[in-house]
Each structure stands twice: as structure tokens, then as C-alpha cells.
Amino acid sequence: MSETVANEFASVSVAVDHSGNGTRLRLEDLRTGTVRFLDALELESIVWAPDAVLRSLLDPSLHRWRDADGAPAQESLDQP
Hints:
2 helices
């Protein structure tokens, strides 16, 4: 079962995935179809990250809207 989290800037499908080696969160950008899986350690890192780190992720000029059509269908946090 997945849920959609959306606002005027983004729309993301969120689901718990049990098909890997452990439970993880499956996130899908509904605009591009890009998928990312986050495990417990990655989620905890987001929770504990300083606000400045999270703000930098929200800067669309860094990577998000530079080439939306060329975005990978699936990626992980450890890949550039």
C-alpha cells in the first residue's frame, strides 16, 4: 500500500518495501518516475541532519530541475 504526499511543489508516492534484505521506505517522484529506497540508517541520518544540510537538499538549482528528462529511473543515496 502506498500513500501520496503532495503540495504545490512536488508529488511523491511513499510505501514500505519488504522485498530487499530488510524493510525500507520506497519513494517515487510522481513527476519523473525516479525511485529511491531508504533504509533505517538513511532515514535516521535525515532525522539527525542539521537544518542547513536539509536546506541544501531543497535547492533545486543543485540538481533537481537541471535535466528532469534525463533523471535516472532508480538510484540510491550512495551514487552521484
